[in-house]
Amino acid sequence: QLQLVESGGGLVQPGGSLRLSCTASGSLDYYAIGWFRQAPGKEREGVSAISHNAGNTLYADSVKGRFTISRDNAEKTVYLQMNNLKPEDTAVYYCATVWGSATLKANFYDYWGQGTQVTVSS
Questions:
Q1: Using an 8 Å Cβ cutoff, are 110 and 99 in contact?
Q2: Average pLDDT along the chain
């Protein structure tokens, strides 16, 4: 069973940046990867996704132009570079895998990490 570990979360001031990492216990070569977030009292939402070969990337409207997803299959790692962070970006961020096309719909994903907390506050 594939295991995913997120890292890179923390406390940052508005306008700041963080880079999240999602590292897998096995090969990610054939998986699309998604980043999701869940704030207290809110539903989990898709933030970004990347196809298995990085040929296709998706972003939620709320993060377009601020977040960038990338992957290094040799390192079994997917990254989410988050710039110009806003208080509304505060949430637990999760990565997940899907065998197939990249999508922002969480119900398509099978393996999930435990999440990393991102807090944007002054």
A1: yes
A2: 97
| Other Cβ atoms within 10 Å of 117 Cβ, number | 12
Residue 121 has what DSSP assignment? -
DSSP state of 40: T
Q: What are the tens digits of pLDDT across the range 14-52?
A: 999 999 999 999 999 999 999 999 999 999 999 999 999
Residue 1 has pLDDT above 90, yes or no: no
Please tell me the distance from the alpha carbon of residue 48 to that of residue 59, in angstroms, as a whole number. 4
Tokens 């990085």 sit at which residue? 54
CB atoms within 10 A of CB 34: 27
Looking at residue 78, its pLDDT comes to: 98
Tally of helices (H runs) and strands (E runs) in the chain: 0, 11
Beta bridge partners of 38: 92
Interval 51-97: pLDDT, tens: 999 999 999 999 999 999 999 999 999 999 999 999 999 999 999 99
> Of 122, 1, 109, 121, which Cα lies nearest the Cα of 45?
109
**Cα–chain-centroid distance for residue 90?**
13
